[in-house]
Fold this sequence. Notes:
Helices cover about 65% and strands about 5% of the residues.
Amino acid sequence: MEENKCRMPVGMQFSVIHRSFRRQMDTLLAEYGMTGPQLGVLGRLSWLETQETEVNQRDVENAAHMSHAAVTDILKRLETKDFIRVTPSTLDRRSKCLHTTEKAKTLYESLDTLDKQVFDSLCQGMDDTQREALASAMSIMLKNATAAKGS
């Protein structure tokens, strides 16, 4: 097995790779008029819609671990861009329900392709065996990370 020739600590390597992945993904998302944080909020909303009958802003704030002001700004932008629609709640007149639109669903269908593009870019010079080993190792590390306290 080839020795790791990089003298950078492993944690820093993960950080550099993460930043590069985010920058490349942000560039691709810009073609859809979307930012990374907007995609994160949209993803939380989409997931919440599968869990609850009505989703409101507070639900998104809690799921995304974001402030009221930050989520308010992002939701306004998502509504303006037609990724979400807002309707009155049937359960509480003071509350508004959030819904993803077909445009959001179409974007989500494209995410696997975008993700693969960025992954392929980062894996240049690797053969299929190395890519599969990396994917397998990452799955194990993700399982360990989510099982660790404080995750």
